[in-house]
Each structure stands twice: as C-alpha cells, then as structure tokens.
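Appendix C. Worked example: Tubulin beta chain
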Amino acid sequence: MREIVHVQAGQCGNQIGAKFWEVISNEHGIDPTGTYHGDSDLQLEHINVYFNEVSGGKYVSCALLVDLEPGTMESVRAGPFGRLFHPDNFVFGQSGAGNNWANGHYTEGAELVDSILDVVRKEAGSCDGLQGFQLTHSLGGGTGSGMGTLLISKIREEYPDRIINKFSIVPSPKVSDAVVEPYNATLSVHQLVENTDGTFCIDNEALYDICFSQTLKLTNPTYGDLNHLVSATMSGVTTCLRFPGQLNADLRKLTVNMVPFPRLHFFMPGFAPLTSRGSQQYRSLTVPELTQQIIRIRVIFTAIQ
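Step 2, the predicted output written as structure tokens:
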C-alpha cells in the first residue's frame, strides 16, 4: 500500500488534525473505537493510506501528535475519536513555546525533536510503501511554526525522496491572537519554501468572512465552525488519495499536477458547495453550479483581494 504518515503540531494543528480524523473516519465507516461499520467495499479499498489495521480487525490512525505542552494532547485523547490514536504517538513537553518561534525551533522544540523523530521512524518503518508525510500546524504560534518547521527540516534530511505536504493556518491582521504572529510566520515561510513539496494556505480571516457572509450566514461562528471548514477542505483534498480514482492517485501525482516550479508550491484551497443550513434544500448540485461557486473569492480559504 501507499501509506501517508500524518503529523499534527501545536494547539491549532492538533485541533484541526483531530477534526480531520473525525471526518475521514466517518467517510470510511470507522467508529470512535476503530471498528469498521461501513457499507461499501470502496471504503476499505485504500484505507491503509491513513489507517493501520491492528488485532481484532480494528483500525488506528497513522498519526503523530506533537505539542510543547500537555493540555491539547489531553483534550484530543479525551475527545470522541481519542481512541483512534496510538498512545505511544503522543509526544509532548511541559513548558510550551509562549508564541515564540525561537523557543519552538531552537530551545524547547529542539529538546523534543529526537523523541518525535523516533516515533516518525517507527511509523515510517511499519509502512509497506511510504509515499510521504502530511503535517497540520499554524504559522502564528510558537510550537506550530517553530517546532513544525524544525520537524519538516529533519524529516526532509532523513526522507529526501518522500513527498511532504502541509496544511498551514496563516495569520492575518484582522484575526490575531498574538502580536508576534507576523514574525513567527515570516520566519517559517523560508522553511516551507525549502522543505515542503506542497503547502495549503488557510487563514482565519477568510474563514470568518465565509461564515459571516451570504455563504453560510452564521451570526457567531466559533473555532469549532472554522475547524469544521478546514477539516472538510482537508478531506476533499485527500479524497483522491483515499478512494479509487483516475486523477491524483498519490501525493507525487498531486504535486506534479499542481506545482509549476519547485519553490512555487503554495496553494489557496476552496470548497464547494458551501451553503447555509436553511438554503441547502433549495440548491441543485450541478456541475455548472459547483463551478460557479468555486471560482468565487468568497469560498477561497485564503484572504485575497
């Protein structure tokens, strides 16, 4: 099989990563205990891309969860799909990065990175045919940006011929939790240019605009709503990897078709159909309708003019 090892780093990366696993588990008919309850052979045909089958016919995720403080790890472990993750694949510190890129990249993160790489090697070694790595993180925090970029540079050193894709939450001036977010992002982008093969850029400003606008018409969107949008997009991007199809059947083909020049690999994902709950029954999901939606700026997950 052509397996993908998924890594989620930092609070944001772990929250959207946990939601991603919830969404694709439902698509593949996997319940929170890892038991298959689906009704189609297509759900199992390429399930080994993201899941490992263990004793008793149960499935566990090929995922590694990383943070510099234990809080997010505990919430993921206690969440509805916490049992999908192997207990040995939780790697965390105690001090946190304090929204400081250098803490994540050079001090606290550097102390933890060897432990993380041990788990990466274990997961990669258990694969029959590793096709690459997929990482979720934010560019605004200290752990996701600092340690996330340190981790991809180490993975690139050890696996130079494997594809590395990232889903990066990019900071924006209108939706900001910390004043140092622009610095963290600036220091991270160089690492993404050099060490990733494809980076899907998503920012909270665009997500809030989608929620508030005529598209979804939410009056008070929460981070849960934003995470749901991100996970739906990640699910859509990876559908061609998880189910049989003619196009973009693995990470390398996806990258070859999307990247014109090696360093020009930053994508703006969009999602269609996006409609408010009250309007869903009045919309027809035809090809022209979907095409019209996807070329509109208001369904693009990166704020652009």
